[in-house]
């Protein structure tokens, strides 16, 4: 599974409406695909492979089990996040922990104001550079407090905190065998077993 950049407009301030219209068309033409605009590029990602879907489901269960899907927060998949680094940029993180009133804070294009997000999480696909670089800059610029990356390419877990401009001041990398406590600012105490997280998200080799 890989994500492809479709177009990079030369004047996004003047072509933002056209770019959003193109995103709408792609969503209609490619049901099940994820369409995002990052840094002025249209990014199209095919549907999840089995390991990606299984890993995401397990992580959602982990966050829900500690109470993050009730009270002051919600755990959501596929929620649009409006990005402040361009006139038409938005991302759709695999998983997000948001304030319970996030539905009342829609910004543009049915995407939610980034201030409602406490954490975003991505599980890498074929084009892992988007998650490891492009989205680091995007989520940092949006001031999302915590960004977690399940890096299936290198079999590591990244936890980024303290957003600064288009980056994060703190970027910790964790390997199998470690247990990682996420910042309590997301709304509860969450500890991730890196081995289990990577195993759940591991790609399944097709039978020949």
End-to-end C-alpha gap = 19 Å
Side-by-side strand order of the widest sheet? 4-7-8-9-10-11
Radius of gyration: 16 Å
Query: Count of helical segments?
Result: 4
Mean pLDDT: 91
Strand content of the residues, in percent? Answer: 25-35%
For the largest beta-sheet, the strand count, sense and barrel status come to: 6 strands, mixed
H/E element string? EHEEHEEEEEHEEEEEH
Low-confidence regions: 1-14
Shape: globular
Number of strands: 13
**Structural class by sheet pairing and helices:** alpha+beta
Helical proportion, percent range? 25-40%
Provide an overview of this structure.
This protein has 208 residues and is an alpha+beta fold. The chain is built from 4 helices and 13 strands. The strands form 4 sheets. Strands 4-7-8-9-10-11 form a 6-stranded mixed beta sheet. A hairpin with a 2-residue loop joins strand 10 and strand 11 (167-174).
For the structure shown, list the relevant keywords.
208 residues, alpha+beta, six-stranded mixed beta sheet, three-stranded antiparallel beta sheet, 4 helices, 26% helix
Could you give a quick summary of the protein structure above?
With 208 residues, this protein is of the alpha+beta class. The protein is built from four helices and 13 strands. It has a six-stranded mixed β-sheet with strand order 4-7-8-9-10-11.
Map the helices and strands.
Blueprint: E1 4-5, H1 12-29, E2 34-38, E3 41-45, H2 50-65, E4 73-77, E5 81-82, E6 90-91, E7 95-99, E8 117-123, H3 129-141, E9 146-151, E10 156-164, E11 167-174, E12 179-181, E13 191-193, H4 194-201
Parallel strand pairs: 8-9
Antiparallel strand pairs: 1-3, 2-3, 4-7, 5-6, 7-8, 9-10, 10-11, 12-13
Helix pairs in contact: 2-4
């Amino acid at each position: 599974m890989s994500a492809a950049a479709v177009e990079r407009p030369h004047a996004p301030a003047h072509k933002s409406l056209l770019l959003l219209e193109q995103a709408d068309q792609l969503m209609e033409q490619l049901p099940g695909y994820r369409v995002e605009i990052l840094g002025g590029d249209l990014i199209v990602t095919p549907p999840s492979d089995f390991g990606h879907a299984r890993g995401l489901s397990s992580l959602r269960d982990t966050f829900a089990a500690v109470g993050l899907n009730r009270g002051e927060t919600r755990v959501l998949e596929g929620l649009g996040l409006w990005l402040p680094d361009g006139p038409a940029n938005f991302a759709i993180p695999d998983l997000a922990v948001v304030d319970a009133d996030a539905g009342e804070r829609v910004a543009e294009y049915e995407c939610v104001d980034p201030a409602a997000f406490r954490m975003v999480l991505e599980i890498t696909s074929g084009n892992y550079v988007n998650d490891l670089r492009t989205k680091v800059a995007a989520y940092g610029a949006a001031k999302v407090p915590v960004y977690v990356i399940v890096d299936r390419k290198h079999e590591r877990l990244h936890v980024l905190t303290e957003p600064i401009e288009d980056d994060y001041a703190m970027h910790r990398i964790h390997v199998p065998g470690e247990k990682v406590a996420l910042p309590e600012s997301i709304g509860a105490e969450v500890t991730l077993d890196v081995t289990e997280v990577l195993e759940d998200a591991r790609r399944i080799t097709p039978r020949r």
